Amino acid sequence: MHHANHHYGHSHILARYCGMPEPSHPPRIHGYLQHGWNIGDGLAPGTPYVAGSRLLVWSEETRRRSWSQGRRNVVVVGAPFAYLVETTPAGGEPGEGTIFYPFHGWEGQQVHGDHQRLVDEVRATENGPVTACLYWNEYRMGAVRRLYERAGFRVICHGYRGFWWRDHDRDFLVKQLAELRRHRRVVSNRLCSAIWYGLLAGREAAVYGDPMVLDNADMTFGGEPRLHRQWPGLYGRETDFAACHRLARAQLGADELAGPEELRTLLGWSKEGYV
Asked: How far apart are CA 24 and CA 26, in angstroms?
């Protein structure tokens, strides 16, 4: 099983949806499951991939892009977060305030930019309390975390996505959904998974501020400039929720989710159990 299939607890979420016993290690997914929203073919740039392996993507749009890159064994299954939303009833209390996701790096690439400038812009724009959700590598950098804390933001981290089959927080997306529902708005300085997730969870969303720069960014599929061109409706301090919500459903494959039995088949999981 490709280690990225475990990221963010994806395989655990799908196993629960399929009604399988809660294992410490979920069944082996027969293929590569898209692990984050991207504007490419469903694979993260540079991902080791065995030619001909099944590629399990979130949306029909991604499947078509993947087909255009020469991949043929591509199947739309929907985003694991969409399955989580489908199976997690919302509470009765409306959210308040804003949750802000600064653009982040990862183990292999760091982000360069002015966090203070972002803090000032968010404080000048948002009404009510603000939660800053930092990715694990920014969260552990004390200087970045303290900057947001000094600004009066509540600072959190959803956990560690995992890497090479180690230290996965299987409840990463469970915690993220709970936090999104706790707030009225979700904002970021780049269009990213968190924005689509917030919209699917019924929250207002907006993208504004300095998008920052990623070390050695792969521009094969257009990068940040293409995000502006293709999804202009998400940018700005106020957006049209209904229009953006429809876009989120399409990007996350929320209208193409499989039933438990069908999903077992697509993932290569037997009906009787797992090995």
From this structure: 6
Q: Do 258 and 65 touch, CB atoms closer than 8 A? A: no
Summarize pLDDT for 168-218 with one digit per residue, the tens.
Answer: 778 999 999 999 999 999 999 999 999 999 999 999 999 999 888 765 666
Per the structure block, which two tokens stand in for 212?
């920052």
CA atoms within 13 A on the CB side of 121: 18
Sorted by where each starts, the structural domains of the chain and their CATH numbers stand as 3-87+253-267 (no CATH), 98-251 (3.40.50)
Looking at the DSSP bridge assignments, the partners of residue 74 are: 55
Q: Which strands, in side-by-side order, build the sheet including 154-156?
A: 154-156, 130-133, 98-101, 185-188, 204-207
Question: What is the rounded CA–CA span in Å between residue 181 and residue 198?
Answer: 8
pLDDT in tens, 69-88: 888 899 999 999 999 999 99
The pTM of this model reads 0.92
Q: Tell me the C-alpha distance between 173 and 237, whole Å.
A: 26
Q: Quick count: other Cβ atoms within 10 Å of Cβ 146? A: 11
Q: How distant is the alpha carbon of residue 255 from its chain centre?
A: 17
Can you name the residues that pair with 166 across neighbouring β-strands?
A: 163
